[in-house]
Specification:
The chain has six helices and five strands, in the order E-E-H-E-E-H-H-H-H-E-H. By secondary structure, the chain is mainly alpha-helical. The chain folds into two domains: 38 residues, no CATH class; 160 residues, Butyryl-CoA Dehydrogenase, subunit A, domain 3, CATH 1.20.140. A hairpin with a 2-residue loop joins strand 3 and strand 4. Keywords: Cell inner membrane, Cell membrane, Membrane, Transmembrane, Transmembrane helix. InterPro entries: PqiA-like, PqiA-PqiB_transport.
Length: 207
């Protein structure tokens, strides 16, 4: 049985359990005074808005140069994928694999995963609640690795600055990529996981 079926509302601020009051539009938490809702207002719409914006920015994040490495006054801008290829060519396959997974695979999985969650919740697709919650938790787990590329670039820009001898500068692709990461993180936070359990008829999900 869901909490909402028992007439219980959970405060999003302090997690206090509140008995749902009848004929009350704006019920407040008995502990902290924050507004409590059965579900986060406009959760699906807000998550879609963040996700679509992230998907649009994902294109320039991969097409535009993410950083420029200059040596003796000459610099070559590098996109994420070209950087991975250069690492492979220099024999640094493990590092290339880490960058590829963190910068290409993880953001793509998050975009597709959140979209599938939203679509399955809205359209009541034949995806069990257990599968949905597993996907949601996995998206939350891998989210922390999405900023790896940005952290590496930030460290390199700060450390490698030898005037005309050698410099590393962040380019527009880094801004777009950071925006994608932040937007997907916000989308995961905005999505209300309790929607996963709504309208679920599978007996397997209530074992």
């Amino acid at each position: 049985m869901r909490a909402i079926d028992a007439g219980i509302l959970i405060c999003a601020e302090c997690h206090e359990l509140n008995k749902q009051e009848a004929d009350v539009d704006d019920q407040v938490c008995t502990r902290c005074g924050a507004l409590v809702h059965a579900r986060r207002p406009n959760s699906v719409a807000r998550t879609w808005a963040l996700l679509i914006t992230a998907a649009i920015l994902y294109i320039p994040a991969n097409v535009l140069p993410i950083m420029t490495v200059s040596s003796l006054g000459k610099g070559d801008p590098s996109t994420i994928m070209s950087g991975v290829i250069q690492l492979v060519q220099h024999g640094m396959i493990p590092i290339a694999a880490v960058v590829f997974i963190a910068s290409i695979v993880v953001p793509t999985f998050k975009l597709v995963g959140i979209a599938l969650l939203l679509f399955s919740v809205q359209r009541h697709q034949p995806l069990s609640a257990r599968q949905r919650i597993w996907m949601y938790r996995f998206i939350e787990f891998i989210g922390r690795w999405s900023m790896l590329d940005i952290f590496v670039i930030a460290i390199l820009v700060a450390l490698v600055n030898f005037g005309r001898l050698a410099t590393i500068e962040a380019d527009l692709g880094a801004i777009a990529f950071a925006s994608v990461v932040i937007l997907t993180m916000l989308a995961a936070v905005t999505f209300d996981p309790r929607l996963i359990w709504d309208n679920t008829e599978s007996d397997d999900d209530h074992d």
